[in-house]
Design a protein that fits this description.
Layout lengths: L9 H9 L31 E5 L13 E6 L5 E5 L4 E5 L7 E5 L13 E7 L4 E6 L4 E6 L2 E7 L5 E4 L5 E5 L4 E5 L9 E5 L13 E6 L5 E5 L4 E5 L7 E5 L16 E3 L4 E6 L4 E6 L6 E5 L13 E6 L5 E5 L4 E5 L4
Antiparallel strand pairs: 1-24, 2-3, 3-4, 4-5, 6-7, 7-8, 8-9, 10-11, 11-12, 12-13, 14-15, 15-16, 16-17, 18-19, 19-20, 20-21, 22-23, 23-24
Pfam families: NHL (PF01436)
InterPro entries: 6-blade_b-propeller_TolB-like, NHL_repeat
Keywords: Glycoprotein, Repeat, Signal
Length: 337
Amino acid sequence: MNTINIYHYVVFIILNVTVQTKSEKCEKTSQNGPCSTNNKINRKWKQNAITVGGGHGRGQQLNQLNLTQGIFIDKNKNIFIADSWNDRIVEWKYDAKEGQIIAGGNGQGYRMDQLSYPTDFIVDQQNHSIIIADYDNKRVIQWLNQKQQILIQNIDCSGLAMDKNGFLYVSGGYKNEVRRWKMGEYNNEGIVVAGANGEGDQLNQFHYPTFIFVDEDQSVYVTDQDNHRVMKWRKDAKEGIVVAGGNGKGENLNQLSHPGGVIVDDLGEIYVADCWNHRVMRWCEGKEEGELIVGGNGKGSQLNQLYYPRGLSFDDKGNLYVADQRNDRIEKFERLF
């Protein structure tokens, strides 16, 4: 395994080690689909969250956030946040009352020490570096011990992911594609692994892809935001399959509305931040509808409500963290069983 602590891929380790036991293992069969179960497992979370970051109104103080996007929780339960409208990446230590700036925070701009609306990132804790989708600056930039290096320039970058082999994946919202680069080899255009067939709703197209997740088989899950669906592209596939939503914009259990973050666990269960429905949904590939996990109580600021949720992450106990974007806070939903 590559030493990089992978922002999206890490959930495989988290949930495989700490959540799934031998008695819980999902019975995977080709007939029933990748996350069919013998009903011995049905993970649930408390419906009232705990605010563990922000929650002090919108602003740029160290105890505040401003329009959050991607998040990541490390093994020590420290929270890394793309604080997009503050043009910075911040880290909230476990139980801290305020965050600390680890990238950006020098005003919006194009200088090497600045960011402009960062949306997603990958954390390498061993080397104390972070790779950032610097969205408005159209670049992927690495911060290493407060020194900066541009990895990819002039790129439409919305979401980032890295697989177990160290390949870097970048989604391009306006180009409607996902490209892949070999780690350390960025002086090329990369390889298209999904999309790049123009804007549309066909199985080989996207309409503004954002968050991405790559599994251990190098299948790429893509939030196809304006098609209100999540697509799965197997390695070397020429088109994807719909694994969540895809039934038009709506709030029924078989629908999504401008989805955001996506994570897939070791059982093949797909977690989606259903942004405009103010809820988090769980889907199984091949199923006709999803299941409500948290939220879904209308938009609001109560502890059982969300307001345009975006990023998702799990800690090593299977607790669910949500970047509650318009409430400018990070919510922790504790796992019940």
